[in-house]
Specification:
With about 1100 residues, the protein is of the alpha+beta class. It is built from twelve helices and 74 strands. It has a five-stranded mixed beta sheet, with no helix packed on it. Strands 61-67-66-63-64 form a five-stranded mixed beta sheet, with no helix packed on it. A hairpin with a 5-residue loop joins strand 56 (about 670) and strand 57. The chain is elongated and about 195 Å long.
Length: about 1100
């Protein structure tokens, strides 16, 4: 049971004691796993400083983080909010102005509200862009509010210095007085996990339990308590500005020894999620106690003790990169980052995957140790014992042993260029002149004169102890003599412990009998740039686009045809049967028969690969042009079958210097404590695969502003943009504060974007020429470790239409268009009616002309038939005269023969009627009556025309024959016009035969298509061979006399009746003219 719980449980029941004890432990056990590792020193944390140069406001007095993730800064120049990228002076959406600019304290409510107090009195509450002001009128003390707190019952408290303690009741503040057992100044107020309210005064600490009704004194005789903080185990700590930082001395502990105090004048302290205590100071920077529960209980800690030598307390000052040594506030955000508000700006500490260890060797001027001014550029790494690391460097030329991230041993004048640890734990170093063997605290040199002593600095002065340097002679054999300046490139050993050394003169095996070259065993000639011995005792040698494998005494060479295409091989490593090679052109693996490239899933290409480390259960690690690359174990299992996913660790992950890459041999190793070390241009850097902290907090996503055509609009639920918004810019952000530079976004404007738009790290969306109407903008984001906030945030807005884009305008346009179309329609109708009228007139004129033409044709034809017609008429007239004379004779008899006279009179009447019929028929052909259609019998019309033209035919010695079809359907036609058509065709045939005693045939028949066919065939001269297709054209004739209108009129008559006329040449002499008439016209009648 913790001290606080024990103190408050003295007068309660056992059940109450147990409940509080259990609750306290649950709080302790539920501390999130993320946060800053307590075993990391301050120098191992990733520190970022923002000053005026980075856009930060100066003198950050107060810090708070609201529920939306924003970090709020209270400064002497106003209120700012920070999303990790941009510092923004806060301006309420309501347009209200803050009463003051100089801010003294901030407090964030769980529901998203923010309290702000001002240096010269007064307070404001901000929520949803609206500001509520509090002053004297609302009962707020006139002095500045130093601290805010809300207890578990919802009561809101403030500490206002000399104006004492007050709480908010409704909309007014009530000062706490003696009626609650409290009177006097209040420097700070705090609510712990039990709901107890703590108040720090200039001389004491008082408290009010959640169920209590009066404040009680917890401790007296104190020196200005200005801040409280509760540790994860429930212990309450206080900052006494006039004394130091320590746990609150509770009465229940008064009989024991006092808690240790950290003598630093502090106004703000906090515990992070892992339990480290952070302490601000006014002039001494920031302090951190990683394990406050382990502070010595026997003595207090003086400034001289912790400032330089005591590992229980760490310091980080302006000399270390802090913006200022004057610290006002400290805050841990929800992702576990620690923020510092200082007089010079803003600082952040966070845990990074990579820890850079700058190495600063010590040189001596006499007996005085002086830190070297040269940066230590690492040239080779080797694994030591118990988590230690050996690092060789160039400029200065030193060999360093690194233990617990600091230099434990330093050897001068050993510019090693290559290092290797064999299976027995022996470390080999190669310099430009020789090879060293380090084992059991003894350093042996191969091929050098006997040396004296080296140096091991464990304190301020050399103690005379070091590694003994001994000389070993190099054996020679087979006429092979190593180069006196070997410049060793790579080292490895075989299963028998024999060392393979690659140097400028070749690649050799060192054994008791002498040197054996790789070339003599069938291997390539030249210097191997990488060597490795696998678990099957095979030795691999890397060359330029070539790999040699020594298995026993047999060498197998792999080249480009076997897939080796990485350029100069800089690293070879393996695990089981899989071998990995890296080079300047990428990474490849060996599947047992050939090498295959490794393709990243993002489509990029790997380059500058070196320092491959195969970590058990933690995948593949190596140095690459972009930084440290890690391919997880699960991805390695599918390499070859698909592209692999990988992660990169660079500057933002704690790598503060460039990797040496292939310039170091090797450039990466894994020590016995699981850490993987990389050579850099300023020392070394390490990463522990088993202790990488992932950011599991999805970033809150917010819309910050909307700008349309240069004008900024406030964010609201009824956002309306003006008409004709040409350029719309939507600014959004995500408040992930760990590595905000790696926060990625996707957005989509529904109705405009068909797919999600990948914005990368850009925090703005741009649209142009949006149509009027409602829009739904959605944006999502992921944090630096790829954890997405899939819900994101949305913005609904409306682009207002211009007048010409409104529905009313469109209706008016439609109506206007309808009116125009109606007018055009009326004009069209009138035009059509006019054209129809004109056409009718033209057709009427055409019909009249045709009728006149037909009449003229008939008259002309009848004129040609005058002799025949006269003879035809003369015959009945003569018969009538003869009958009349016979009738007179019969009547003049003595006894008139009346019956015979009657018979003669009747014959005379018949002859007269016959003559009258002939005259009527002739007259009908001469008439100009309009077309009159009736049902006619075509066979009858044919017979009539045969009778009429018989005399004409006889005159030309032409025989006329008819072949009428029995049962021929009647048709609807103009009888006179059909007679004229037949007469034209028959006369045309008679005239074509001349006086050749030809034959004219007139046939009728019913065709299969339901039309009546009339054919007039002659045995005359036939059709003109050159102009047969023109015979039906007007005024075309082959006769010396004639108008050329007969056949043209005939075609016009036939076509006006819906028929068709054509002429064909007979197989013998003559031609046949045929025309059809549709029966349907008869049906129509």
């Amino acid at each position: 049971m913790t001290d606080v719980v024990r103190f408050f449980a003295r007068n309660t029941t056992r059940q109450r004691r147990f409940d509080l004890w259990l609750w306290s432990w649950l709080v302790f056990l539920c501390v999130p796993l993320y946060g800053i590792d307590r075993d990391r020193s301050l120098n191992q944390l990733y520190h970022t400083a923002w000053t005026h140069l980075e856009g930060a406001p100066g003198e950050v007095r107060a810090l708070a983080q609201t529920a939306d993730g924003y970090l709020w800064l209270g400064t002497a120049t106003g209120l700012f909010r920070f999303d990790g990228i941009r510092f923004e002076p806060y301006k309420p959406q309501s347009g209200q102005a803050f009463p003051q600019r100089s801010i003294s304290s901030l407090f964030a409510e769980p529901d998203g509200g923010l309290w702000v107090s001002y240096w010269y009195g007064g307070a404001s509450f901000i929520k949803n862009g609206t500001v509520t002001e509090y002053g004297k009128e609302e009962g707020l003390p006139s002095r500045p509010v130093l601290a805010f707190a809300r207890d578990r019952k919802g009561v809101f408290w403030i500490a206002a210095g000399k104006d004492g303690l007050a709480r908010l009741e409704g909309s007014r503040w009530r000062k706490i007085g003696p009626e609650l057992g409290f009177a006097g100044p209040a420097n700070t107020v705090f609510v712990d996990h039990t709901g107890t309210v703590w108040v720090g005064t200039p001389t004491s600490v008082v408290y009010l339990m959640e169920a209590g009704n009066r404040f009680q004194i917890a401790a007296q005789g104190l020196a200005a308590v200005y801040n409280f903080a509760e540790s994860p185990d429930g212990k309450l700590w206080m900052a006494e500005t006039g004394y130091g930082v320590r746990a609150v001395p509770l009465p229940a502990k008064s009989h024991g020894k006092p808690s240790p105090a950290i003598f630093v004048g502090s106004q703000a302290i906090t515990f992070d999620k892992q339990g480290s205590l952070w302490i601000t100071s006014l002039g001494g920077g920031i302090r951190r106690v990683p394990y406050p529960e382990h502070l010595h209980q026997t003595q207090t800690i003086s400034p001289s003790a912790w400032q330089f030598h005591n590992s229980e307390i760490e310091a980080f000052t302006q000399k270390d990169g802090l913006t200022s040594d004057y610290i006002y506030s400290v805050l841990e955000d929800r992702e576990g980052n620690v923020w510092i508000g200082a007089s010079g700006g803003l600082d952040r500490f966070r845990e990074s995957p990579v820890v850079s260890v700058p190495l600063q060797p010590i040189s001596y001027r006499g007996a005085l140790p002086i830190p070297s001014l040269h940066s230590f550029t690492t040239s080779a790494l080797a694994v030591g014992d118990q988590g230690s690391l050996w690092a060789a460097g160039v400029g200065p030329q030193l060999l360093l042993k690194i233990q617990k991230d600091s230099i434990a041993t330093q050897l001068r004048d050993h510019p090693a260029e290559c290092a290797y640890r064999d299976s027995n734990g022996v470390v080999w170093f190669a310099t430009p002149y020789s090879v060293f063997r380090l084992s059991d605290e003894r350093l042996d040199a191969i091929g050098l004169k006997q040396g004296a002593i080296t140096y091991n600095y464990d304190g301020a002065e050399p103690d005379g102890q070091g590694l003994t340097l001994r000389r070993r002679d190099l054996p020679t054999a087979g006429g092979i003599t190593p180069n006196p300046r070997p410049r060793v490139k790579a080292l490895t050993e075989d299963s028998l412990g024999r060392l393979w050394i690659s140097m400028e003169s070749g690649t050799f095996r060192l054994e008791r009998a002498g040197w054996t070259s790789l070339e003599s065993l069938g291997g390539p000639q030249g210097t191997a740039t990488a060597e490795f011995t696998d678990s099957q005792e095979r030795i691999w040698f890397g060359f330029a686009n070539m790999v040699a494998m020594l298995d026993g005494d047999g060498v197998r060479i792999f080249s480009g045809k076997d897939g080796v295409q990485v350029g100069a091989v800089t690293s070879i490593q393996g695990k089981g049967t899989k071998i990995w090679i890296g080079g300047e052109l990428g990474l490849e693996f060996f599947d047992g028969s050939r090498f295959h490239p490794v393709h990243p899933s993002d489509g990029s290409a790997l380059g500058g690969v070196s320092g491959i480390v195969v970590a058990p259960e933690d995948g593949l690690w190596f140095s690459e042009n972009r930084g440290i690359i890690h391919i997880p174990e699960a991805q390695l299992r599918q390499v070859g079958s698909s592209k692999v996913e990988f992660e990169t660790f660079g500057f933002l992950d704690g790598l503060t210097a460039d990797l040496r890459g292939p310039l170091s041999s090797p450039s990466a190793v894994q020590t016995t404590d699981d850490r993987i070390w990389f050579a850099t241009t300023n020392g070394v850097a390490w990463i522990n695969p088993k202790r990488i902290v992932r950011n599991a907090v999805p970033p809150p996503v917010l819309i910050e502003s909307v700008i349309a055509d240069g004008r900024k609009y406030g964010i609201s639920t009824s956002l309306k943009l003006p008409p004709r918004a040409g350029d719309v810019q939507i600014a959004y952000t995500a408040t992930s504060l760990t590595v905000p530079e790696r926060v990625r976004f996707r957005y989509r404007l529904e109705g405009q974007d068909k797919e999600w738009q990948d914005a990368g790290t850009r925090r703005e969306a741009f649209y142009t020429n949006l149509d009027p109407g409602p829009y739904h903008f959605r944006v999502i984001a992921c944090n630096n470790d790829g954890v997405w906030n899939e819900a994101g945030t949305v913005l609904d807005f409306v682009v207002l239409p211009a007048f010409y884009q409104t529905v009313t305008f469109r209706i008016l346009c439609v109506l206007a268009l309808v009116a125009v179309l109606w007018s055009l329609y009326l004009l069209r109708v009138r035009s059509i009616e006019q054209r129809h009228l004109e056409r009718n007139r033209a057709e009427e004129m055409l019909r009249h002309a045709r009728a006149e033409l037909a009449h003229m044709n008939r008259v002309s034809t009848m004129g040609e038939l005058t002799a025949s017609l006269a003879h035809e008429i003369k015959q009945p007239i003569g018969a009538a005269v003869a009958n009349a004379e016979a009738c007179l004779r019969l009547l003049n008899r003595n006894q008139p023969d009346l019956p015979e006279a009657r018979e003669a009179a009747m014959e005379m009447a018949r002859d007269a009627r016959r003559a009258a019929d002939i005259i009527d028929h002739v007259r009908s052909l001469f008439r100009k009556d309009s077309s009159h259609q009736e049902i006619i019998d075509l066979n009858e019309v044919i017979q009539e025309m045969v009778v009429m033209l018989q005399k004409e035919a006889n005159r030309h010695s032409v025989t006329m024959r008819t072949n009428p079809s029995e049962g021929l359907p009647k048709v609807m036609a103009d009888r006179v016009q059909i007679q004229q058509a037949l007469m034209n065709l028959m006369l045309n045939g008679i005239e074509a035969m001349g006086d050749t005693s030809g034959e004219l045939s007139i046939n009728s028949q019913l065709r299969d298509d339901g039309q009546v066919l009339i054919a007039v065939s002659d045995t005359g001269v036939g059709l003109p061979t050159e102009n047969a297709d023109e015979i039906f054209n007007a005024f075309f004739t082959t006769k010396s006399q004639g108008t050329g209108l007969g056949l043209a009129i005939t075609r016009s008559i036939v076509e006006s009746h819906g028929g068709r006329i054509w002429a064909t040449a007979n197989s013998g002499p003559g031609a046949t003219f045929q025309f059809t008439l549709p029966i349907r016209q008869a049906g129509a009648a």
